[in-house]
Amino acid sequence: MNEVPAKNILIVEDDDIMLKVVERILKREGYGVEIARDGKEALQKVQDNKYALIITDLMMPYANGFEIISKVNGNAEKRTPVIILSSLGNEDSIMEGFKMGADDFLRKPVMVGELVIRVKRLIDQNK
Q: Coiled coil where (predicted)?
């Protein structure tokens, strides 16, 4: 398994505009960023690498965010923090994500300051 720098974040998002916005914000804050444009690509990256944090959409092609959360935290020695980033606002989806191991939820469109604070908090907690 390849080691990834402690501040490396995986963004899983099928909306190119949202992906670029989040990527730009995180890079500006000094984080290393890898991207996956669908669930299948994300599952491969998670299998091959370790991340300080994963930010994932819920509704995507091939594998959804719930599957990613389950895979990431299902059998890991050390949990990887996960933030759900979704336009889905229904409480059932959010609660399901938390039950599966998500650590936080951000609604799209994301507010820059809120994203930065939540990312820093989760990464600092898991050092």
A: none
Q: Read off the pLDDT of residues 73-97 as tens digits, 9 standing for 90 and up.
A: 776 667 899 999 988 767 888 899 9
pLDDT digits (tens, 9 = 90+) for 17-37: 999 999 999 999 999 999 999
pTM of this prediction?
Answer: 0.91
Residue 116 has phi, psi (to 5 degrees) of -60, -45
Residue 114 lies in a domain: no
Distances (CA, A) of 62 to 19, 32, 55, 56: 17, 25, 17, 14
Q: How far apart are CA 63 and CA 112, in angstroms?
A: 27
**Amino acid in position 16:** D
Q: Tell me the DSSP string of 31-46.
A: -EEEEESSHHHHHHHH
- Structural contact between residues 51 and 68, judged by C-beta atoms closer than 8 angstroms: no
Q: Is 89 helix (H, G, I), strand (E, B) or coil?
A: coil
Return the number of other C-beta atoms located less than 10 Å from residue 117's C-beta.
11
What's the CATH number where 81 sits? 3.40.50.2300
The domain in which residue 40 lies consists of 8-104
